[in-house]
Amino acid sequence: MALLTREAILGASDIKTEDVEVPEWGGTVRVRGLSATERDAFEQATVAIKGKKVKASFLNIRARIVSLSVVDEDGNRMFTESDIKALGEKSAAPMDRIYDVAGRLSGVTDADMEELAGNSSGQSDDSDSD
Question: What is the pTM of this model?
Answer without folding.
Answer: 0.78
